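=== Structural record ===
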Amino acid sequence: MQLNTAKRASFDEGSLDQYLREISQYPLITREEEVTLAQRIKQQDPEALDKLVRSNLRFVVSVAKKYQNQGVSLSDLINEGNLGLIRAAHKFDETKGIKFI
């Protein structure tokens, strides 16, 4: 899954279940790891971006589930949330002393 070339295709039911299983395998990261990854992202390290984003995909799903009964499909909410997560990872400033998520 390439995060920097985000797909806009919607999930069907089976692929959504598979996606949820897949993202549950990515470990959460510590505050210290966030700082290190943010510094590497500023140096254009795609692996750091990938790790920061993947470790926070579950957050996107949890927020998307809160909005799923408002006329937009869960898969569309997740897709848009993932794009927002990628943008946020690029903009994250670790020097402010706050957590990424």
Observations:
- Residues 1-9 have pLDDT under 50 and may be disordered.
- Helices lie at 13-23, 31-42, 46-54, 57-67, 74-91.
- The longest helix spans residues 74-91.
